[in-house]
Amino acid sequence: MNTIKIIKNFIIFNTKPWLDFFISSTNLITDIKDLQKIQHKSWDTVREIFSKKINELNLKTGVEIGVAFGGHSEYMLKNTQITKLYGIDPYKHFWFYFDPMNLSQRKFDFLYAFVIGKLNTFGDRFELIRTTSEKAVRYVDKIDFIYIDGNHSYEQTKKDIENWYEKINTGGLIGGDDYDHPSFPGVKKAVDEFFKQKDLQITVEHGGVWYVINNNLK
């Protein structure tokens, strides 16, 4: 079994392919850190919104679809009393999908290792599942909340809501970001269609953060 060593929030495997990969990845470290700084300027102002609702509703278990750099997962783990957070992200390049976060596969592989190291300090409270949300839904049991921040197309946002809705306990929370974002019109369309049909109120706050409290009895 390969051992894992955490060095400055990076994860190093004691096998030669991984060692060679990281030795040659100085430019990747720089690229990831630069991209992270740019993204944080917009993300930092909205992260607290969902965590406040988690605390208000006293929720304990949840899922984040689209972990990226792990910043939002880290914020939730630090600022709430949740006991288990599943991070779902394939860290895979999709050639047919346009998004600033659709990185090259090499950068995604590096970012995956970066996030494992970054969130390792939370132990069993956090579990990173590297697969699509469609596959992950079969792995996760009932949860109290889900934050959807993956593929922002209409089709995928709709699938994520439909696939995970039944996993949410009554009184739980469903939400995400980029509601009514001009670059991702499919998010608003998918959210509106699904929850209006369920007769559930959609709340939208600054930064395009949206959420719904699941008051429907199962």
Lay out the secondary structure:
Layout: E1 4-7, E2 10-13, H1 16-23, H2 26-43, H3 47-57, E3 61-65, H4 71-79, E4 84-88, H5 105-119, E5 126-129, H6 133-136, E6 143-148, H7 154-165, E7 168-176, H8 185-197, E8 203-204, E9 210-213
Parallel strand pairs: 3-4, 3-6, 4-5, 6-7
Antiparallel strand pairs: 1-2, 7-9, 8-9
Helix pairs in contact: 3-4, 7-8
Descriptors for this entry?
single chain, 218 residues, alpha/beta, Rossmann fold, seven-stranded mixed beta sheet, 8 helices, 9 strands, globular, disordered N terminus
Q: Strand percentage, roughly?
A: 15-25%
- Helix tally equals 8
Helix content: 40-55%
First CA to last CA: what distance? 43 Å
Overall CATH architecture: 3-Layer(aba) Sandwich
Tell me the structural class: alpha/beta
Overview of this structure, please?
It contains eight helices and nine strands. It has about 220 residues and is an alpha/beta fold. The protein starts with a strand and ends in a 5-residue tail after the last strand. Residues about 1-25 have low confidence and may be disordered.
